[in-house]
């Protein structure tokens, strides 16, 4: 794919903004890593060697019986008994004193004089998922230590694991909502601006009424009727978010519909839909693109607010807003507040820097010497 | 006597992406006290940039070298405070576009008063008296009642007069006029030029006049500098340059005038398009119930007929309804009254049913910068019509596009480039190619040459005549430029405020205009004389 000269110039301008480029890199690496969060923070091992056979618990379901246990349910890999069974190749003695058995097998390769089929587990760097409740000594929330690098929250879940998953959830949520609201908003704005007149007048009034609907109440009411989940929340946010872009796109289309190239296309006999999307939209994109950053950061903020208020995603899901709420409720555990603050500050700053670079790159008057 | 303005070795470049693009190279000229110097050149020759640089009004990306001495003071590199004192006080500017040069939210009194308060510390009644004096001087009738008017309430000519009044407010020594009449009608242009010459004489100012129009230069200037691609190629007194041009470029500019007459039309040529008593009235609605209180009569009772191979010229000042009439015939705006295309009534046809018929009627617009979508390549633009209509040509679209571009004088190898990479004249050729590729019967040409340089105009007129000869096209040619109309048209329709005031054979109208309005238009266009007797 070759870039048009205009886009090539924009790309050059963007690359000249060092801060934006660095932010893009850092954000890209962080988001890329968080996409593989299951391999970084998980309560199941990535790979298990049991009696010479390889198992991949991160993807597959294995009942405990596969590893010589008793239960038909999924093996609880974090339990010492299960770990012992895997390491020792399924010795019965694991049910009595797993720690001793494990250490002896690891040291000597045998147990009680008998050779065993030694196995191993490959754990992710953080052996907890966002909803893993770990056994900690003392009361939750517990302070950062070697096991929990950022401590635990008040239900003894690892904060670092929750932040990694929460970051991914926030960004994914924001991107999905932004994409959907943009599509709807651009389509609605395009129709209004292009046809103008009564279409425009009626739509504008509808949008005014729609925009004055109290979004929060609707979300609370819906949440009271249907259990909230990710896609429902996406749907609700899109339902009330699509009006944001309409004004910008409508204005661009109102301006462009009287341009001579649009008239020329009409004189050629080109249909309305084709004119809108082939002739007007590409020229309305600059204003739209410069508006998108506000929607992305706004959506991240909105999700955090809803979670903070307790009307967002269920509390089991990894949410930065919920972490902030816990920080407020547990002032004796400052690591919660610091983690939440630093995560938000880093995420939003990086996004703002990137979008600032994009906006400048699209500015035709900006010259870079 | 030392000159008022002395420019030496002026070099200006624009910096973008670290690359300097030169705009002006080693330019030098003098403006003496009480003298009018004209800088002439085609677009892109650097004439406006030269003028703006004298008071450092260029954008930050400009790199200026050389020397500009105004009244003994070096202006290049001078502190901003000194420059501000000179600008608007000793040196005043008039720009091309009178609508955008005035703040639409301020009244005339406020705009003029601002400058007086700033530079002369005049306020209240003293300022008001001075404003009335100025408005009177620039020929605004009934100045008192105009004080509280907003720019949109004035006509284009009046706005330009207000701009001149603003420029004169502080009694400048040097007035720089950057294409002050280009956006105006010919009759108004003549009046403004007369006003400027008159004011210059009375106030004893010097005038630096920037224009592309040699006719204006001959009328107003004492000395001329001819600019080409950032350099002054020839300079000298007006009479000398016009009578005995030395440089080939100057000769080319002087000879660039659309001449000749169109080929005669075959007597049995069929009628392509015709209207009878066509009306375009825009209703003015009032009140809650949208009661129609009156009409803006944009076109009032227009009857015309164009035959194959024939050109009908429509002339008139801006606002006379020329373009509205053309758009109505193209069915791009709604109208009343029958319109027939090749013997078929098209006035009642729904827009969807009309689309196939659009193949036979095409339009070329005035602004070659605005009529091509900036995000499409030339090949996409020209081929767009082929995707919609069947021209009976089975060859691949790219081949047809290449042929059409060759016919209109564009290198087909450049068809994958974007419009901004082409010059104004080339873009107009692309717009013509877009219209012609469908093999239409009727082409509406809405001021196709007005935005172009004189030399390019001549080429476009040649191209249009050539295409007409080869394909037997019917043209509806709209222009305010009577010279071009004379070179193109068989018949002429003269419009004034929506009415057709005169219509007939071109030769007859040009040689013996019947109405005073037409006579005034002719006088302004060919002699740059303001006809005060004719109320225009």
TrEMBL record, chain A:
The keyword Transmembrane helix applies. It is found in: Cell membrane. Residues 167-359 form the ABC transmembrane type-1 domain. GO terms for cellular component: plasma membrane. One of its GO terms (biological process) is transmembrane transport. Coiled coil: none annotated. Its main location: membrane. The chain crosses the membrane at residues 20-41, 171-196, 216-240, 286-313, 333-355. Keywords: Membrane, Transmembrane, Transmembrane helix, Transport. It is a multi-pass membrane protein. The keyword Lipid metabolism does not apply. Belongs to the binding-protein-dependent transport system permease family. This is Inner membrane ABC transporter permease protein YejE. The gene is yejE.
TrEMBL record, chain B:
Residues 5-254, 284-522 form the ABC transporter domain. It is an enzyme of class 3 (hydrolase). It holds the Pfam family oligo_HPY. Belongs to the ABC transporter superfamily. It comes from the Bacteria. The gene is gsiA_3. GO terms for molecular function: ATP binding; ATP hydrolysis activity. It is found in: Cell inner membrane. InterPro entries: AAA+_ATPase, ABC_Ni/Peptide_Import, ABC_transporter-like_ATP-bd, ABC_transporter-like_CS, Oligopep_ABC_C, P-loop_NTPase. Coiled coil: none annotated. Keywords: ATP-binding, Cell inner membrane, Cell membrane, Hydrolase, Membrane, Nucleotide-binding, Translocase, Transport. Signal peptide: none annotated. One of its GO terms (cellular component) is plasma membrane. Its EC number is 3.6.3.-. NCBIfam families: PRK10419.1, PRK11308.1. This is Glutathione import ATP-binding protein GsiA. It is a peripheral membrane protein. Its main location: membrane. GO terms for biological process: peptide transport; transmembrane transport. Gene3D superfamilies: P-loop containing nucleotide triphosphate hydrolases (3.40.50.300).
């Amino acid at each position: 794919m070759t870039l048009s000269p205009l886009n090539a110039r924009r790309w050059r301008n963007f690359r000249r903004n060092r801060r934006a480029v660095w932010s893009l890199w850092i954000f890209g690496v962080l988001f890329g890593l968080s996409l593989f969060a299951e391999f970084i923070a998980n309560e199941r091992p990535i790979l298990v060697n049991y009696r010479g056979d390889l198992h991949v618990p991160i993807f597959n379901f294995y009942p405990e019986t596969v590893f010589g246990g008793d239960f038909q349910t999924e093996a609880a890999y974090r339990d010492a008994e299960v770990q012992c069974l895997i390491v020792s190749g399924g010795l019965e003695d694991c049910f009595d004193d797993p720690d001793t058995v494990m250490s002896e097998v690891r040291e000597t390769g045998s147990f009680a004089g008998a050779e065993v089929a030694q196995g191993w587990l490959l754990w992710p760097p953080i052996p907890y998922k966002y909803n893993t409740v770990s056994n900690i000594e003392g009361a939750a929330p517990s302070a950062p230590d070697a096991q929990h690098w950022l401590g635990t929250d008040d239900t003894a879940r690892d904060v670092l694991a929750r932040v990694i998953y929460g970051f991914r959830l926030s960004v994914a949520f924001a991107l999905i909502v932004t994409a959907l609201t943009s599509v709807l908003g651009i389509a609605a704005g395009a129709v209004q601006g292009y046809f103008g007149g009564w279409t425009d007048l009626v739509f504008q009034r509808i949008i005014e009424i729609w925009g004055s609907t109290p979004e929060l109440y609707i979300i609370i009411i819906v949440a009271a009727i249907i259990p909230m989940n990710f896609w429902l929340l996406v749907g609700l946010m899109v339902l009330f978010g699509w009006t944001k872009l309409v004004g910008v796109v409508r204005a661009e289309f109102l301006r462009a519909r009287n341009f001579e190239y649009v008239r020329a296309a009409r004189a050629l006999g080109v249909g309305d839909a084709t004119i809108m999307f082939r002739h007007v939209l590409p020229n309305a994109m600059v204003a739209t693109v410069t508006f998108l950053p506000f929607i992305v950061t706004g959506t991240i903020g909105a999700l955090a607010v809803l979670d903070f208020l307790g009307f967002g995603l269920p509390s089991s899901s990894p949410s930065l807003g919920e972490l902030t709420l816990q920080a407020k409720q547990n002032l004796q555990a400052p690591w919660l507040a610091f983690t939440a603050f630093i995560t938000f500050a880093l995420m939003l700053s990086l996004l703002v820097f990137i979008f600032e670079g994009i906006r400048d790159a699209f500015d035709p008057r900006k010259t870079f010497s | 006597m030392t000159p008022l303005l002395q420019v030496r070795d002026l070099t200006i470049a624009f910096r973008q992406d670290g690359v300097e693009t030169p705009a002006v190279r080693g330019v030098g000229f003098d403006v003496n006290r009480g003298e009018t110097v004209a800088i002439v050149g085609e677009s892109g020759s650097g004439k406006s940039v030269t003028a703006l640089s004298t008071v450092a009004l260029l954008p930050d990306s400009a790199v200026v070298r050389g020397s500009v001495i105004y009244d003994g003071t070096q202006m290049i590199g001078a502190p901003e405070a000194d420059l501000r004192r000179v600008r608007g006080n000793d040196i005043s500017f008039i720009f091309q576009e009178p609508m955008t040069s005035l703040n639409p939210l301020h009244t005339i009194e406020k705009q003029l008063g601002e400058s007086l308060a700033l530079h002369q510390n005049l306020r209240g009644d003293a300022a008001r008296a001075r404003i009335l004096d100025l408005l009177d001087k620039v020929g605004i009738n009934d100045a008192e009642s105009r004080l509280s008017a907003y720019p949109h309430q004035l006509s284009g000519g009046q706005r330009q007069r207000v701009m001149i009044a603003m420029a004169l407010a502080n009694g400048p020594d040097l007035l720089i006029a950057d294409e002050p009449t280009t956006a105006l009608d010919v009759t108004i242009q003549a009046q403004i030029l007369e006003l400027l010459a008159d004011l210059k004489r009375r106030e004893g100012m010097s005038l630096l006049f920037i224009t592309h129009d040699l006719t204006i230069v001959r009328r107003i200037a004492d000395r001329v500098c001819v600019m080409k691609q950032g350099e002054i190629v020839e300079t000298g007194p007006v009479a000398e340059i016009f009578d005995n041009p030395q440089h080939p470029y100057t000769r080319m500019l002087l000879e660039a005038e659309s001449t000749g007459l169109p080929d005669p039309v075959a007597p049995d040529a069929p009628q392509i398009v015709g209207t009878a008593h066509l009306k375009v009235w825009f209703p003015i609605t009032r009140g809650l119930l949208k009661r129609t209180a009156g009409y803006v009569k944009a076109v009032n009772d227009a009857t015309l007929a164009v035959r194959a191979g024939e050109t009908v010229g429509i002339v008139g000042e801006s606002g006379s309804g020329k373009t509205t009439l053309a758009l109505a015939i193209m069915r791009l705006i709604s109208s009343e009254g029958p319109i027939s295309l090749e013997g078929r009534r098209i006035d009642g046809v729904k827009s969807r049913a009309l689309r196939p018929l659009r193949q036979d009627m095409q339009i070329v617009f005035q602004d070659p910068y605005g009529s091509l979508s900036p995000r499409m390549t030339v090949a996409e633009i020209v081929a767009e019509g082929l995707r919609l209509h069947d021209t009976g040509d089975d060859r691949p679209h790219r081949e047809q596009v290449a042929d059409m571009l060759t016919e209109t004088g564009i290198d087909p190898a450049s068809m994958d480039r974007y419009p901004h990479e082409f010059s104004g004249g080339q873009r107009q050729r692309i717009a013509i190619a877009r219209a012609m590729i469908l093999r239409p019967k009727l082409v509406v040409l809405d001021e196709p040459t007005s935005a172009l340089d004189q030399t390019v105009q001549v080429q476009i007129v040649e191209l249009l005549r050539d295409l007409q000869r080869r394909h037997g096209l019917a043209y509806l040619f709209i222009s305010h430029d009577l010279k071009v109309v004379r070179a193109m048209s068989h018949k002429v329709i003269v419009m004034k405020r929506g009415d057709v005031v005169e219509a007939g054979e071109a030769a007859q109208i040009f040689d013996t205009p019947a109405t005073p309005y037409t006579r005034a238009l002719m006088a302004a266009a060919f002699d740059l004389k303001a006809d005060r007797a004719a109320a225009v």
